[in-house]
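Need the bound structure for zinc ion, inputs here:
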Amino acid sequence: MLIPFLLALQLTPGAATVASITVRTANASQRVALVPDAAGPMVRPESLGPLLPVAVTPDAPGHYRVVVFGVAFAVEAGVASTTVAGQVQPLAAAPIERDHQLLIPLQMVSEVFPTYVNNLRWDAVSRQLVIFTRVATTTRQSRLVVVDAGHGGVDNGMTGPLSAPISIYEKDVTLSVAKKLGVQLKSRGLRVVYTRTTDTLIALSDRGRIANQAGGDLFISVHVNAASLDWKDPAAGRGFETYFLAEAKTEDARRVEEMENQSVRFETDAKVSKDDALSYILSDMKQNEHLRESSELAELVQKHLATMHPGPNRGVKQAGFRVLVTAFMPAVLVEIGFGTNASEAAYLNDARHQVAIASAIADAAAEYLRRYERRVSGGDGRDER
Ligand SMILES: [Zn+2]
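Answer from helper R.:
Posting the output first, comments after.
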C-alpha cells in the first residue's frame, strides 16, 4: 500500500502544475489550459494561438490538418500517429474529438511540433513552448493579404435558398468565411487586414482604399452567388467560380457583375454615375499590370477549391467589379457557392465547410505568393530589404 500512497502524494501537488502550459515569444507569453483525458493531458490546438500561428482544418470526418507556421500535421481521431512531410510519426496517445473539436496529446506539442517546426523549442522544466523569431521575418516582412467580406449592414447581399424559408444571408456567410480565411492565412505565416470584421456597410470604393492604405500584396473578396431567375431551373444552379477584374466577356459574367455592383445603391453618399470611372480605370495601365497576376491567382483559387468543394467548378471568369477596381494589387472575387440552391445553402452555412473553403483559398494565396517570391528573387537576385 506504500507505493500507491506515495504516488497519490506526488500526483496531488503535480496535478495543479500539469493543468496548463505556457506559450512564449521574446516579448509575450500566454497560458494554455490542458484538457484532462484518461490517455493523458490534451491540448486544443487553437488555444495555442494567437502567439503560435496555428489553424485546424477538418479534411474528412475524424481527419484533421493542424498547420503550425505553415507546417501541416495530419491527424485522425483515435489513431496514435501523425503524418508530417510524408512521414508517419507515432504519438504518445491518439488525438480525440470532443464537441466537434480536435484535442491532441500534449506530447505532440512538446515533442512533435518542435521536431518539425524549426523555430520552436520545448522547455520541459518550465513547461513552455518557446517561439523564436525566424530569420526570414526579421529581414523582410511577410506578405499582406487583404480579406474582404462581401456586403454587410443594410446590404444583405443575396438571400436564399429559392422556394424555401430564407436560411442564408450572404453578408453573414461572407463575414464568417472571411474571418476563417484570415486565421488560415496567418497560420501560413502571412499578415492579414480585413475590410470589415463586423456586420457593417462599407462602400465598395472604401474597400479598395483600405487595401491600398494597408499596402496589401493581394486582395480577396468573398461572395455567395445567386442564380438568375431567367434560368430554366434557377434552384438547381450551384458551384464555385472566381473572378478577376476585366471587362465582362459573357452574359453570365455580366449578371454577377451587375449583382455584386448593386451594393453601391446602399451607399448614401455615392456620387458615382452608372458608368462612372469603371471603363476608364479598366483601361488604366496601373490596374492592367495586375491583370495577369490576378488571373493567375484566380486560377489557383479554383484549383484549390476544386480539391474540396462538391462543385461544379465553374471556372475563372472576368468582370468589372467596382470592389476590385480601386484595389491596386492582384485582386480576385470568389463566389464560394450558390445560396439559391437549397443543398449548397446548407453546405455554405456549415462552419466546418466554411473552414475547409477558407483553407483552400488560403492555400491558393500562399501558393501564388510563393510563385511571386520566386519570380521577384529570380528577377534581379537582390534581397528586398
Ligand atoms: Zn456578393
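Comments: Residues 345 and 367 are 28 Å apart (CA to CA). Residues 150-151, 157, 170, 223, 260 surround zinc ion (CB under 6 Å).
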